[in-house]
Amino acid sequence: MLHIGLHFIIPAILVALFFRHNWKSAYLILAATMLVDIDHLIAQPIYDPNRCSINFHPLHKLWLIAVYILLCFLPKTRLLGLGLSIHMALDSIDCQITNGVWMQH
Predict the structure, then answer these.
(1) Residue of 36, 42, 49 lying closest to 2 (CA atoms)
(2) Confidence of residue 80 (pLDDT cuts 50, 70, 90)
(3) Fewer Cβ in 10 A, N or C end of the chain?
(4) Cβ partners under 8 Å of residue 30, min gap 6
C-alpha cells in the first residue's frame, strides 16, 4: 500500500518544490502518469505481488524508460517525462525491496 501511496506523494512533493505557480495542472499531469499501469491488465494474473513490473509489462520496458527520461528534457513534455520516470523509479525500488532485483529478467 505504501508503494501506491508514494506514486501520489512523491509527485506532490515535486510540485510543491518546483511547480508552485501552476501546481494544480502540474500535479494532475504527474498523477495521470499512473495510467501507465494500464498494461498490468493484460498480464496473467493481473496482479502478482511477487512480479517485478520493470521489463515485464509492455509500458515498463527498459527502452521505453529511456524515452521517458528523454521526455524530461523537452519543455512541452517535461512533466509527462518526470511523472513516468518517477513512476518507473518507484516500481524499480519496489522490485528491489520485494524481490531483491531491480527489474524482471
Answers:
(1) 49
(2) very high
(3) N
(4) 11, 14, 15, 79, 82, 83, 86
Joined together, the cell numbers standing for residue 40 give 498490468
Q: What is the domain partition of the chain in residue ranges?
A: 2-99
Of 10, 23, 33, nearest in space to 80 by CA: 33
| Each residue's pLDDT tens digit, 17-60 | 999 999 999 999 999 999 999 999 999 999 888 899 999 999 99
* Residue that the C-alpha cell 522490485 belongs to: 95
Are the CB atoms for 43 and 66 separated by under 8 Å? Answer: no
Q: Residue with C-alpha cell 520516470?
A: 85
